[in-house]
Amino acid sequence: MSDQGLDGLFGGHRVLAILRGMPVDTTVELAERAWDLGVTAVEVPARDAQGLEALRATVRAGAERGHPVGAGTVITPEQVRDVADAGAAFTVAPGFDAEVMAASEAAGMPHLPGVATPSDIQGVIRAGGRWVKAFPATSLGTAWFRAMHGPFPELRIVATGGMDARNAREYLDAGARMVAVGSALADPEQIPLLAELV
Does the active-site annotation cover 43? Predict the structure, then answer.
C-alpha cells in the first residue's frame, strides 16, 4: 500500500511543507498560503496535544480545498491511532519501525519512514515500501542521494532536515524526488520561493 498510496499523494510534487511547533491558527494560515501557491503536500507533526490540535484544524481546512494532510513524527502505534482519529491522510517518521509502518497502513494511512543507511532502506523495501525520508539530509549530503540510486534505482527519496529554498534544487538534482521543508518556513519568503520548484 505504501507505494500506491504515496505515489498518489506525492506524485508530481516537489515540496512537502512541514508545519511544526506553531500555534494552531498560524499552522492553518501557513498551510493555506502553501496551498494557494501550489505547494499542496503538507505535514503537521503531532508529537503532543498542541500538534494534534493543529493537525485536526489543518485537516479540516484541507478538506475544504480537497488537500489531504499528513501527520509527522509518528513513532508509536498509539500515535498512529491518534493521528488516524485526527483525520491524517499519511504518516511520517524520523526512522523506520516496521510495526509503526504496518499499523499506519492498516489504518489506511501510507507511511513515509526515515532512513539514513542502506540497511534502513533494505528494511523499508522488505516491508513493502519504496518511498523513504532521508534524514537528516544535509548531514548525509548530496553524494549520499546519488550513491543510493545505484543499488536502489526504484527508491523515491524525500530529502528532509536542513532543507530550504536555497539548497532544495541541489538535492532535487542529486536524485531526491521531493524536499521537505520545516523550520525554514518561519521565514515568510520561503514558501513563494519554494513554490517556484513546484
Answer: yes
Helix (H) or strand (E) holding 157: strand 156-160
Answer for the pair 160, 140: CB distance below 8 angstroms, yes or no.
Answer: no
Rounded Cα distance between 62 and 56, Å, is 10
Write down all domains in the chain, each with its CATH number in brackets. Answer: 2-196 (3.20.20.70)
Q: Please state whether beta strands 178-181 and 156-160 pair in parallel, antiparallel, or not at all (unpaired).
A: parallel
The structure's pTM equals 0.94
Provide the grid cell at 30. 501557513
Q: Which of 29, 78, 105, 133 is catalytic?
A: 133
Are 37 and 66 within 8 A, CB to CB?
no
53 given a catalytic annotation = no
pLDDT mean by block of 10 residues, the chain; 198 residues: 75 93 95 91 96 98 97 98 98 97 97 98 96 97 97 96 95 97 84 85
Catalytic residue among 43, 64, 154, 189: 43
d(CA 130, CA 144): 17
